[in-house]
Write the structure tokens for this entry.
Amino acid sequence: MSRLAGKVAIVTGGASGLGRATVMRFLADGAKVMVADLNEANGQETLSVAKAQGHGDDVTFMRCDVANEADVAATVAEAVKRFGRLDVVFLNAGVGGAFGPIAETSVEDWDYTFDVLVRSVFLGMKHASSAMRKLGDGGVILVTASIAGMVGGGGSHAYSAAKAAVISLIENVAAELGPHRIRVVGIAPGVISTPLLHRGRPERYEAQFKRQPWPDRGEPEVIADVAAFLVSDEARFITGETVKVDGGLLAQGVALFGTGKDSTFMKSAGVNRGTTGEAMVVRHLEPQSDKKD
């Protein structure tokens, strides 16, 4: 029997990268899947790929702004209406968010980062857990965290702080929902070759890929494999845990984007809106001197 046979899952940010790979893995393992994403073009492309693999009736797409409560509530309701139940929600949608020196970070870019990376997880947990409790069969809420939320040097300050908040949410909500047989678990990827990271130019990040001890490049499928295990009954006694999937990167220490003034994040500022279809904003900065006039 397939590992996820009879299960129904929602995957946010499911139209590309880690999300799409996990959608395909969940379908292959027997689940019915709702792909939720802001980018409709990518969503339709994901449906086409899934249907070409013979999953036509088992997969659907819904446009969803994961930072908008009405959208999240509607997505959960539609999944239950279409498939009759809800067993798994993978809160995976994300963006690179604000980057640059702290003094160059706008409040708007900071808030946008936390809206997409933290508010969305809160909303997903809120509405998914409510639906799961009403259905009475328990469930799993899986969240994409990051090693950037576990240590300095893994990302910009805004992204890292947001992912640290997500890891704390996973632990606290797991304790709350455990008595209802709802598990809450996280995955903390390292450097994974996705459009969110390389924006169509993976060669730009060869240095980051080479910093991990494990010799193979991190591809979206390595995350999908772990996700499929964590949401399955084989992981039924795991909750409140965030699993590092980083090729040993964090084990040896991390400074993925350089240190101090040489950090990539000190040379420009702006906001990375990921694969939402919305434009990235970059302002190149002049080198700053600490010398007093």
